[in-house]
Amino acid sequence: MKIATWNVNSLSVRLPQVLDWLAANPTDVLALQELKMTDDKFPAAAFAEAGYQALWFGQKTYNGVALISVATGSDVVKNIPGFEDDMSRVITATYPDGAGGQIRVIGAYFPNGQAPDSDKFVYKMRWLDALREWVQAEMEKHPNLVLLGDYNITFDERDMWDPVGLKDTIHCTVQEREKLQALTDLGLVDSFRLFEQAEKSYSWWDYREFAFRRNRGLRIDHILISEALKARASACSIDRTPRKNERPSDHAPVVLAWL
User: Fold this and answer.
1) Under DSSP, is residue 197 helix (H, G, I), strand (E, B) or coil?
2) Which residues face 226 on adjacent strands?
3) pLDDT tens-place string over residues 21-67
4) For residue 208, with 0-12 CB atoms within 10 Å meaning exposed, 13-18 middle and 19 or more buried, which class applies?
5) What angle do CA 145, 139, 232 make, to 5 degrees?
6) Residue 252 in contact with residue 242, Cβ under 8 Å?
7) Catalytic annotation on 150?
8) Catalytic residue among 150, 159, 221, 250
9) pTM
10) For residues 229 and 146, is the Cβ–Cβ distance under 8 A?
11) Which residue among 109, 151, 202, 221 is the active-site one?
12) pLDDT tens-digit profile of 152-179?
Protein backbone atom coordinates (compact mmCIF):
# COMPACT_ATOMS: atom_id res chain seq x y z
CA MET A 1 0.00 0.00 0.00
CA LYS A 2 0.98 3.62 -0.46
CA ILE A 3 -0.06 6.79 1.30
CA ALA A 4 1.08 10.26 0.29
CA THR A 5 0.77 13.94 1.12
CA TRP A 6 0.98 16.93 -1.20
CA ASN A 7 0.34 20.61 -0.68
CA VAL A 8 -0.91 21.52 -4.16
CA ASN A 9 -1.18 25.29 -3.58
CA SER A 10 -4.51 25.60 -5.47
CA LEU A 11 -6.25 22.50 -6.74
CA SER A 12 -8.01 24.45 -9.48
CA VAL A 13 -4.60 25.24 -10.96
CA ARG A 14 -2.91 21.93 -10.18
CA LEU A 15 -5.73 19.40 -10.83
CA PRO A 16 -4.25 18.09 -14.12
CA GLN A 17 -0.91 17.62 -12.36
CA VAL A 18 -2.52 15.73 -9.47
CA LEU A 19 -4.40 13.43 -11.86
CA ASP A 20 -1.26 12.82 -13.91
CA TRP A 21 0.70 12.05 -10.75
CA LEU A 22 -1.92 9.58 -9.52
CA ALA A 23 -1.94 7.86 -12.91
CA ALA A 24 1.82 7.42 -12.71
CA ASN A 25 1.86 6.71 -8.97
CA PRO A 26 -1.20 4.69 -7.90
CA THR A 27 -1.80 5.58 -4.26
CA ASP A 28 -4.24 4.18 -1.71
CA VAL A 29 -4.67 7.49 0.11
CA LEU A 30 -3.44 10.92 -0.97
CA ALA A 31 -3.83 13.83 1.45
CA LEU A 32 -4.01 17.23 -0.24
CA GLN A 33 -3.56 20.65 1.32
CA GLU A 34 -4.23 24.22 0.21
CA LEU A 35 -7.15 23.42 -2.07
CA LYS A 36 -8.05 27.12 -2.10
CA MET A 37 -11.62 26.42 -3.20
CA THR A 38 -15.07 26.15 -1.69
CA ASP A 39 -16.72 22.74 -1.31
CA ASP A 40 -19.02 23.26 -4.28
CA LYS A 41 -16.02 23.77 -6.59
CA PHE A 42 -14.26 20.54 -5.61
CA PRO A 43 -13.65 18.35 -8.71
CA ALA A 44 -15.07 15.10 -7.29
CA ALA A 45 -16.16 13.92 -10.75
CA ALA A 46 -12.62 14.20 -12.13
CA PHE A 47 -11.26 12.02 -9.34
CA ALA A 48 -14.12 9.54 -9.73
CA GLU A 49 -13.36 9.22 -13.43
CA ALA A 50 -9.76 8.39 -12.45
CA GLY A 51 -11.03 5.68 -10.10
CA TYR A 52 -10.72 7.52 -6.79
CA GLN A 53 -13.06 8.42 -3.95
CA ALA A 54 -12.74 11.87 -2.37
CA LEU A 55 -13.46 13.57 0.92
CA TRP A 56 -12.90 17.30 1.13
CA PHE A 57 -13.19 20.32 3.37
CA GLY A 58 -12.81 23.52 1.41
CA GLN A 59 -12.53 27.23 2.04
CA LYS A 60 -12.64 30.23 -0.26
CA THR A 61 -9.22 31.56 -1.29
CA TYR A 62 -7.24 29.94 1.53
CA ASN A 63 -6.54 26.57 3.16
CA GLY A 64 -8.72 23.54 2.33
CA VAL A 65 -7.83 19.84 2.69
CA ALA A 66 -8.89 16.58 1.05
CA LEU A 67 -8.34 12.83 1.17
CA ILE A 68 -8.26 11.07 -2.20
CA SER A 69 -8.52 7.29 -1.89
CA VAL A 70 -9.19 4.00 -3.60
CA ALA A 71 -11.49 2.74 -0.83
CA THR A 72 -14.30 4.75 0.73
CA GLY A 73 -13.39 6.51 3.96
CA SER A 74 -15.57 6.23 7.05
CA ASP A 75 -15.99 7.99 10.40
CA VAL A 76 -15.11 11.34 8.83
CA VAL A 77 -14.12 14.27 11.06
CA LYS A 78 -13.38 17.82 9.91
CA ASN A 79 -11.03 20.09 11.86
CA ILE A 80 -10.10 19.48 15.50
CA PRO A 81 -13.13 18.64 17.65
CA GLY A 82 -13.53 21.11 20.50
CA PHE A 83 -11.18 23.70 18.98
CA GLU A 84 -13.05 26.67 17.56
CA ASP A 85 -11.55 27.49 14.18
CA ASP A 86 -12.86 29.12 11.02
CA MET A 87 -10.02 27.70 8.93
CA SER A 88 -10.37 24.43 6.98
CA ARG A 89 -7.22 22.63 8.07
CA VAL A 90 -7.90 19.01 9.02
CA ILE A 91 -9.79 16.09 7.52
CA THR A 92 -9.79 12.60 9.04
CA ALA A 93 -11.17 9.23 7.97
CA THR A 94 -10.70 5.50 8.47
CA TYR A 95 -9.64 3.20 5.63
CA PRO A 96 -8.77 -0.48 5.10
CA ASP A 97 -5.08 -1.02 5.93
CA GLY A 98 -4.39 -3.71 3.36
CA ALA A 99 -3.97 -6.43 5.98
CA GLY A 100 -7.55 -7.01 7.04
CA GLY A 101 -7.59 -4.18 9.54
CA GLN A 102 -8.15 -0.43 9.49
CA ILE A 103 -6.00 2.66 9.50
CA ARG A 104 -6.94 6.10 10.80
CA VAL A 105 -5.68 8.85 8.49
CA ILE A 106 -5.44 12.47 9.61
CA GLY A 107 -4.61 14.87 6.79
CA ALA A 108 -3.65 18.32 8.03
CA TYR A 109 -2.52 21.72 6.86
CA PHE A 110 -0.72 23.16 9.87
CA PRO A 111 -0.79 26.95 10.34
CA ASN A 112 2.14 28.82 8.80
CA GLY A 113 2.62 31.12 11.78
CA GLN A 114 3.99 34.02 9.68
CA ALA A 115 6.64 35.17 12.20
CA PRO A 116 7.58 34.25 15.79
CA ASP A 117 6.39 37.63 17.11
CA SER A 118 3.00 37.63 15.35
CA ASP A 119 -0.57 36.87 16.41
CA LYS A 120 -0.58 34.11 13.78
CA PHE A 121 2.27 32.42 15.63
CA VAL A 122 0.22 32.48 18.84
CA TYR A 123 -2.63 30.85 16.91
CA LYS A 124 -0.22 28.24 15.59
CA MET A 125 0.91 27.34 19.12
CA ARG A 126 -2.71 27.03 20.32
CA TRP A 127 -3.63 24.96 17.28
CA LEU A 128 -0.71 22.59 17.84
CA ASP A 129 -1.69 22.09 21.48
CA ALA A 130 -5.26 21.27 20.47
CA LEU A 131 -4.07 18.91 17.75
CA ARG A 132 -1.87 17.01 20.17
CA GLU A 133 -4.69 16.51 22.66
CA TRP A 134 -7.03 15.25 19.95
CA VAL A 135 -4.44 12.99 18.29
CA GLN A 136 -3.71 11.44 21.68
CA ALA A 137 -7.39 10.57 22.05
CA GLU A 138 -7.53 9.23 18.48
CA MET A 139 -4.52 6.99 19.09
CA GLU A 140 -6.24 5.40 22.06
CA LYS A 141 -9.04 4.33 19.72
CA HIS A 142 -6.95 3.68 16.60
CA PRO A 143 -3.58 1.92 17.08
CA ASN A 144 -2.93 2.15 13.33
CA LEU A 145 -2.77 5.90 12.79
CA VAL A 146 -1.12 8.20 10.26
CA LEU A 147 -0.81 11.97 10.70
CA LEU A 148 0.38 13.53 7.47
CA GLY A 149 0.38 16.83 5.69
CA ASP A 150 2.11 20.19 5.45
CA TYR A 151 3.38 20.73 8.99
CA ASN A 152 5.11 24.05 8.31
CA ILE A 153 7.77 22.89 10.80
CA THR A 154 11.24 21.42 10.32
CA PHE A 155 12.49 18.73 12.68
CA ASP A 156 16.12 19.80 12.79
CA GLU A 157 19.02 21.29 10.82
CA ARG A 158 18.94 18.45 8.29
CA ASP A 159 15.61 19.84 7.11
CA MET A 160 17.02 23.31 6.32
CA TRP A 161 19.13 24.40 3.38
CA ASP A 162 20.77 27.11 5.54
CA PRO A 163 20.78 26.09 9.22
CA VAL A 164 22.69 29.21 10.29
CA GLY A 165 20.79 31.82 8.30
CA LEU A 166 17.38 30.29 9.01
CA LYS A 167 17.92 29.63 12.70
CA ASP A 168 14.94 30.79 14.79
CA THR A 169 12.97 31.90 11.73
CA ILE A 170 9.45 30.65 11.05
CA HIS A 171 9.26 26.86 10.56
CA CYS A 172 12.58 26.53 12.38
CA THR A 173 11.98 27.93 15.88
CA VAL A 174 12.54 26.10 19.13
CA GLN A 175 8.88 26.63 20.07
CA GLU A 176 7.56 25.00 16.90
CA ARG A 177 9.94 22.07 17.18
CA GLU A 178 8.95 21.50 20.79
CA LYS A 179 5.33 21.18 19.67
CA LEU A 180 6.37 18.77 16.94
CA GLN A 181 8.34 16.76 19.47
CA ALA A 182 5.26 16.66 21.68
CA LEU A 183 3.42 14.96 18.82
CA THR A 184 6.13 12.36 18.32
CA ASP A 185 6.20 11.78 22.08
CA LEU A 186 2.68 10.40 21.76
CA GLY A 187 4.23 7.42 20.00
CA LEU A 188 4.43 8.73 16.45
CA VAL A 189 7.44 8.19 14.22
CA ASP A 190 8.83 10.32 11.38
CA SER A 191 8.58 7.71 8.61
CA PHE A 192 11.01 9.58 6.34
CA ARG A 193 13.85 9.14 8.84
CA LEU A 194 13.22 5.41 9.17
CA PHE A 195 15.17 5.02 5.94
CA GLU A 196 18.49 6.20 4.60
CA GLN A 197 17.95 9.47 2.73
CA ALA A 198 20.08 11.69 0.57
CA GLU A 199 21.50 14.78 2.23
CA LYS A 200 19.61 18.01 1.59
CA SER A 201 16.28 16.28 1.02
CA TYR A 202 13.53 18.90 1.03
CA SER A 203 9.81 19.01 0.22
CA TRP A 204 9.32 22.77 -0.27
CA TRP A 205 11.19 25.41 -2.23
CA ASP A 206 10.35 29.08 -2.60
CA TYR A 207 9.30 30.21 -6.07
CA ARG A 208 11.79 33.05 -5.87
CA GLU A 209 15.52 33.24 -6.60
CA PHE A 210 15.65 29.89 -8.41
CA ALA A 211 15.35 28.15 -5.03
CA PHE A 212 14.38 24.78 -6.48
CA ARG A 213 17.14 24.79 -9.06
CA ARG A 214 19.62 25.66 -6.30
CA ASN A 215 17.98 23.20 -3.89
CA ARG A 216 17.42 25.86 -1.26
CA GLY A 217 14.48 24.27 0.48
CA LEU A 218 12.93 22.97 3.67
CA ARG A 219 11.50 19.61 4.66
CA ILE A 220 8.17 20.65 6.17
CA ASP A 221 5.84 17.98 4.74
CA HIS A 222 5.80 14.92 6.98
CA ILE A 223 4.18 11.51 7.41
CA LEU A 224 4.11 10.47 11.05
CA ILE A 225 3.00 6.93 11.82
CA SER A 226 2.09 5.11 15.01
CA GLU A 227 4.43 2.48 16.45
CA ALA A 228 2.00 -0.22 15.35
CA LEU A 229 2.70 0.69 11.72
CA LYS A 230 6.46 1.19 12.04
CA ALA A 231 7.40 -2.43 11.33
CA ARG A 232 5.25 -2.41 8.19
CA ALA A 233 6.84 0.69 6.64
CA SER A 234 9.01 -0.30 3.67
CA ALA A 235 10.04 3.00 2.06
CA CYS A 236 9.49 6.75 2.28
CA SER A 237 10.57 9.30 -0.29
CA ILE A 238 10.04 12.81 -1.64
CA ASP A 239 9.02 12.89 -5.29
CA ARG A 240 10.69 15.97 -6.75
CA THR A 241 9.37 15.31 -10.26
CA PRO A 242 6.16 17.40 -10.01
CA ARG A 243 8.19 20.39 -8.80
CA LYS A 244 9.73 20.47 -12.28
CA ASN A 245 6.33 20.94 -13.94
CA GLU A 246 5.26 24.13 -15.60
CA ARG A 247 3.35 26.16 -12.99
CA PRO A 248 4.16 23.68 -10.19
CA SER A 249 3.17 23.75 -6.57
CA ASP A 250 5.99 24.95 -4.36
CA HIS A 251 5.72 21.61 -2.50
CA ALA A 252 6.55 18.08 -3.66
CA PRO A 253 4.66 14.91 -2.73
CA VAL A 254 5.95 12.74 0.11
CA VAL A 255 5.16 9.04 -0.30
CA LEU A 256 5.16 6.21 2.25
CA ALA A 257 4.92 2.56 1.25
CA TRP A 258 4.05 -0.13 3.75
CA LEU A 259 3.55 -3.88 3.71
Assistant:
1) coil
2) 188
3) 999 999 999 999 999 999 999 999 999 999 999 999 999 999 999 99
4) exposed
5) 35
6) yes
7) yes
8) 150
9) 0.98
10) yes
11) 109
12) 999 999 999 999 999 999 999 999 999 9
